[in-house]
Amino acid sequence: MNVVTEEISNRPKAHLYAFDIEDYLQSNGSVGQLQISQYDLIGQKKDFITFMASRRFKMKQHIQEHFPLSLQAEAEALLIGSREQMPSDMQNAYQTLGITHLFAISGLHVALIVWLMYEMMIRSGIRRETANWVLIIALPLYALLAGGAPSVWRSVSVTEIVLISMLFQRKIAIEDAFSLSIIGFVFLTPWIIFQIGFQLSYLAAFSLIYSSILLKSSQSYLIHSFIITAVCQLIVYPILLYHFYEISISSFLANLVFVPLFSFLILPLNLLLLVLTFLLPFLSNILFIIYEPSRNLLDIFILNLATLPFQMWNPMKPQPWMILLAYINVLVVLLSLERKKKVFLNSLFFFFTLVVIQVAPYMDSSTRITFVNVGQGDCVLIEMPYRKQVIMIDTGGLLRFDQEMWKQTNEPYEIGRQIVLPFLKGKGINTIDTLIITHADADHMEGAEEVLRGVKVKEIHITPGSAGKEVMDDLWMEIEKQRIPIYEKKAGDMILSDYFLFQYLYPMEEIYEGNNDSLVLSMRNNNFHGLFIGDLEEQGELDLVEHYSKGIQQIDVLKVGHHGSKTSSNELFLTLVQPRLAIIPAGFENRYGHPHPEVVERLKELRIPYLQTGTDGTIEVEINKSGDMFVTIHD
Questions:
Q1: Which residue among 117, 175, 185, 502 is least enclosed by CB atoms within 10 Å?
Q2: Over the range 588-612, which residues count as b (16 or more CB within 10 Å of their CB) and which as e?
Q3: What phi-psi label fits residue 617: left (phi over 0), alpha (psi between -120 and 50 degrees) or beta?
Q4: Peptide bond into 595 cis (omega under 30)
Q5: Is residue 153 within 8 Å of residue 185, measured between CB atoms?
Q6: Start-end of H helices in 310-440
Q7: How far is CA 81 from CA 106, 109, 144, 151, 288, in A?
Q8: How far is residue 173's CA from residue 166's CA, in Å, rounded to a whole number?
Q9: Cβ atoms of 373 and 12 closer than 8 Å
């Protein structure tokens, strides 16, 4: 294949808590990205890895052709490690219950396959040494078919080391096998230690290896299962908080039920059904008729179970020192349980650490205004001191256009779910006191539906007349479902606050006509004045000049109107407000050319410093107790 490429421009990531493509590439041993602008197929590479990849693809096609549609996503996840087809609502439910790991091919799958293959060979009269050699050769092939995730290679490599040691009649201790496995991985691919799957897989495995005394303390299966779940959860919870900012509280109970259910029923059934689709298709079809309805009922049960409240603990993304303290606590607690000494005292120390992580964001005495990089859209988060009040202005969103078929995905990209919610979770924000939708444009409110599903919103403010717009339909359904109070606001209305005077300056009428009816919010006290004007254009800005000429002079921060388009940022308006800093929420290399060169030139002529979210990244303005303003760029 002849390929013409060009280097991808340096686009800043959305925010501190967003997926970082640079870190991901580095953890996989890559050094950068290239964008293909033209290619010609001149041949097909033929090697062993390509052959195994084609076998995996064939296996996926076989599952899609022979398994019922409702069972395909599960079969692909359990059998070949592909979770691409799993619906987002089911993935969210599994995350809430803390059982996502059941769909990651790991030690359970490898152990079951090794046991089945070994028993079949022994019962067929094959010598043990021969059976071991067959497994040594077959397991790496299975790892390639299963997608080669860290958890797969961890299980396969450890098993390979143990089998090889048995062949040489020098059986190796399991902890030594795990250590050799880690050394081998780090030697071959050093950056793998930064992969979340690698970290979680080895931590969980080592926690079980070194908890043998605890596991032997009871013969009860229920207690045994609870100890396994508790030890694994304790050892990985700091890493889970660091990477995902939340953990499932219900996982302790959910795993007691679902681990044995998947281990001894669902996984073996999927393996059996896969074999039967090759050997006896008519029999597999009969089993599908029996299995599919019951499996669908289980999915419904899981979805309903996941809707129960208070299942997730979302304090914030912990600081490195908190992670260190948490791991010291975990080790101390596990040692005290093993030795049965000072269990109560060390448990108190453990819960004290949890309290520290929980209350940390509520100790901040500063006011923080964050302009989130949501691409070509608006999203502003305002946090009062000690987080006594949280206000969000717009939620970002996408203006969706028709795409070529190959660019379309099963799950559409959603700004609210994939950008805004991770930002809120990373900051430990579970409640928004007031959500302001400045106007009914998709790039300002399309993400609101996902925000409402992810955090509690106490009330919503909208501009008069905008509720009836078609773009608001999905959001309106979610508002009614959750029974969230919604209020139309206009000039003169207030938002009560202990720290600032929040006043709406616009619109002045109740007929909604678009951008020039955006809600305009003034935020001020003796030390700071901020102005957030939605997509207000020139006429709206001139109205503000006419009615508030004294009230909006020389402000501190201006959220520039309509992404810096040519139709906004009137010179008279900018001259009057003369902000210390202007923020332009506009996407990286957006198709509209925002901010318009004339607007940029105008800002420069007026000596107004400005930042753009799409090129600079998420921008945080901090106002401390003394009234000093600090600006931080998170790129």
A1: 175
A2: beeeeebbbeebbebbeeeebebbb
A3: left
A4: yes
A5: yes
A6: 320-339, 343-359, 415, 421-426
A7: 10, 10, 10, 10, 21
A8: 11
A9: yes
Strand partners, 350: none
In this structure, which amino acid lies at residue 162? Answer: V
How far, in Å, CA of 583 to CA of 594, rounded?
13
Long-range CB contacts (within 8 A, 24+) of 219-222: 222/256
pLDDT value of position 410: 61
220: its two tokens: 């009860």
Do the Cβ atoms of 444 and 396 come closer than 8 Å?
A: yes
- Identify residue 138 by its one-letter amino acid code: A
Listed residue (468, 561, 560) closest to 515, CA to CA: 561
Token pair 């921060």 in the structure block, residue: 557
Is the CB of residue 390 less than 8 Å from the CB of residue 369?
no
Which residue in 250, 253, 373, 356 sits closest to 313, CA to CA?
250
CA separation for the pair 476, 211 (Å, rounded): 51
What is the architecture, at CATH level 2, of domain 364-401+411-634?
Answer: 4-Layer Sandwich (3.60)
Residue with tokens 């398994």: 67
- Tell me which residue of 520, 508, 532, 528 sits closest to 585, measured CA to CA: 532
C-alpha span between 31 and 38 (Å, rounded)? 21
| Gyration radius of the chain over CA positions | 28
| Kind plus residue range of the DSSP H or E element containing 238 | helix 221-244
- Single out the residue of 161, 202, 203, 199 nearest to residue 180, CA to CA: 161
Q: How far, in Å, CA of 549 to CA of 552, rounded?
A: 6
User: Beta strand 557-559 with 529-532: parallel, antiparallel or unpaired?
Assistant: parallel
HEC-encoded secondary structure of 271-328: HHHHHHHHHCHHHHHHHHHHHHHHHHHHHHHHHHHHCCCCCEECCCCCCHHHHHHHHH
Amino acid letter for position 316: M
Return all residues near 441 (Cβ < 8 A) that are at least 6 apart: 397, 471, 514, 515, 535
Q: What is the pLDDT of residue 7?
A: 47
C-alpha to C-alpha distance for 51 and 31, rounded to whole angstroms = 26
Q: Using alpha carbons only, what angle is made at residue 238 by residues 233 and 242, rounded to the nearest 5 degrees?
A: 130
Q: What's the length of the chain?
A: 635
Residue 128: predicted pLDDT: 85
| Close Cβ partners of 386 (under 8 Å, ≥ 6 residues apart) | 362, 363, 364, 365
As given in the structure block, the two tokens for residue 57 are 């693809």
pTM over 0.90: no
Contacts of residue 216, Cβ cutoff 8 Å, sequence gap at least 6: none
Residue 32 CB partners (closer than 8 Å, separation 6+): 7, 8, 25
The structure tokens listed for 347 are 């448990």
Cβ proximity of 451 and 421 under 8 Å: yes
Which H/E stretch holds residue 187? helix 174-188
| Residue ranges covered by each domain of the chain | 2-39, 49-210+249-314, 364-401+411-634
Q: 630: which strand partners?
A: 622
Encoding tokens for residue 368?
Answer: 């923080």
**Which residues does 433 contact at the CB level (< 8 Å), separation at least 6?**
389, 390, 391, 458, 459
How far is the C-alpha of 445 from the C-alpha of 176, rounded, in Å? 54
CA-wise closest residue to 566 among 591, 523, 534, 599? 599
